[in-house]
Amino acid sequence: MSKDKPDLYTIEPALINKYTDDELQVFTREIESGASPSRALHAFIAHVGANSLDSSIIFSLLRMSYPEIDLSSITGLIHDSGYPFGNPDDLDDDGFDELVRQAYENPSEW
Fold it and tell me: Model confidence over 8-31: pLDDT tens digits?
């Protein structure tokens, strides 16, 4: 791409480190109290006042609470759906919870 034109395809990824430890612990505390991943995510979103959330943050939160989770099989589905702000017909809370359960219980073989 020419240096004269702006790169319209550059996307700045949202980084998990923009949140404080206390903010991040909202998600973890919800999980530890027995909440589903979707409920914990909604609690985090409400706590930080987010009206959008980069999927990389969702993956980081999941890794914090489930260190042994294999996200390789679900990253594309979550990212492409725009969950939790996307169309619920693409992925709703129950679908998200099921994806997390499957990724946790059935890691990919490669």
Answer: 333 344 578 889 999 999 999 999
DSSP string, 3-31: TTS--TT------GGGS-HHHHHHHHHHH
Is the distance from CB of 43 to CB of 31 less than 8 angstroms?
A: no
CA separation for the pair 48, 82 (Å, rounded): 18
Using alpha carbons only, how large is the chain's radius of gyration in Å? 15
Place of tokens 């294999």: 70
Q: What angle do CA 64, 10, 3 make, to 5 degrees?
A: 150
Residue whose structure tokens are 């390789």: 72
Q: What is the pLDDT of residue 106?
A: 83
- Name which of 71, 48, 55, 70 is nearest 13 in CA terms: 55
Between the CA of residue 11 and those of 23, 35, 54, 82, what are the distances in Å? 24, 32, 11, 15
